[in-house]
Amino acid sequence: MKSNSYLLFVKAFGSPIRLKILEQLKNSPKSVMQICSSLGFEQSKVSHNLRCLIDCGFVKNRRDGKKRIYSLNKETVVPLFKIIDKHISKNKEHLIECGVISE
Question: Which of 5, 18, 45, 100 is in Cβ range 3.0-4.6 Å of 95 for a Cys bridge?
């Protein structure tokens, strides 16, 4: 059933910490330590959530010496963020009214 797939997608995407990680990666690729430093979370928490984002295909990683560099999936997630941003800008008042976002 597609609704189950949509629910899994939104659940993976909708975790507050995972969303913060994705927002960090929107700006540029980063190592786990850079993400930890920016967000103030412990490495284990960030690493655990990065694993989920990788498994779900939201994030890619590559080796750079001893560290891994994480980036958004350019094929699907970057365009998705653009669509979300466009939707929010067009529907901000309605999203505020229904309590989805605050001013």
Answer: 100
The Cα-based distances of 99 to 53, 84, 87, 95, 102 in angstroms read 27, 17, 16, 6, 7
As beta bridge partners, residue 101 has none
The tokens describing 9, both together, are 């997608």
Read off the pTM: 0.83
Predicted confidence at residue 58, as pLDDT, reads: 95
Domain CATH number, residue 6: 1.10.10.10
**Range(s) of the domain holding residue 65:** 2-73
Number of domains in the chain: 1
- The pLDDT tens digits for 63-93 are 999 999 999 999 999 999 999 999 989 988 8
Alpha-carbon torsion 56, 46, 71, 24, what sign? positive
Query: What residues contact residue 9 under an 8 Å CB cut-off, 6+ apart?
Result: 56
